[in-house]
Amino acid sequence: MNPKFLKYSEVFSFLAFIFVIFFVLLRLDLLQTERVASQVPELEAELEKAQATADKIPRLQRQLAAARDTAEEVYALQEKVESLQEKAARVEELQAQLEDAEATAEEVSQLQEQLENAREAAAQTPENPPLIILSERNQSYRFAVGSSDISEEFETALQERIIPLLEAQSQRCNCDAIEVIGHTDNLPVSGGRSNLDEKLIRAFNQAETPNLVPGSNLDLGMMRALSIIRYLKQAQQNGRLTQIEYFLPYSAGQMLKPNHTLDTSPEATGNESRRRIEMRLLKSTAWEEQIGNNNR
């Protein structure tokens, strides 16, 4: 074989090999390019997401800052709520203490009244029964402003304390008459034109329950005394106060102080100690003797 031909054949083979290598490399490059090209949309999408996320960062940072501020406000409000809850609990505690104090004050007032009545009873002889005073300093004996209506609490006090006391004292002193005197403070009465001249007797006889209108403190004192008498007479119909034959209503208005001195002051005051009902047990024989002496 011709050596020159072999030399060209080797060269040709070498060039073919180079061409194959080049073709393979080119194909690999094309495949890489295609693969990269196929990833471009995905990468672009990820890039857009990244950009969108980057755009959200300032807003998220603002939201985070606002959330931190809100959390601080929540903590502050929580502290205020806890403080208010503590104060509310303290208020409830003080309210309970106040109610206990009011109840205790009421009990003290009742005990003082009972003590005064006991002292007066001890100092009295059978001929001079004690004066029973129902002062508005005691919550149980209060009338509403400008009214003569007896409250349920007042009725309970009359039924449980006063009527038994009247029964015991009337039997001890052999009394058959009760004077009931209404006292008021000296604040002006604004009830209007009085109708006591027209309706007072019917109210006393209990033929009806008229709508009495006071025109003065004297009228109001009489109306309150009459309300007490009406209640006592009703109790008598139910078997109480059987020894009492006469019920006598009076009014001192605002004229007498609790110590029974005359009040000449023009100043109007709403002193609750002035507002009271006084009850005095009497013997009708004393009237008969007095009437007999006057006729001599």
TrEMBL record:
Keyword annotations of the record: Cell projection, Cilium, Coiled coil, Flagellum, Membrane, Transmembrane, Transmembrane helix
InterPro entries in the cross-refs: OmpA-like_sf (IPR036737)
Coiled coil stretches, renumbered: 33-128
Segments crossing the lipid bilayer: 12-30
Top-level taxon of origin: Bacteria
Protein name: Flagellar motor protein
Species the sequence originates in: Dactylococcopsis salina (strain PCC 8305) (Myxobactron salinum)
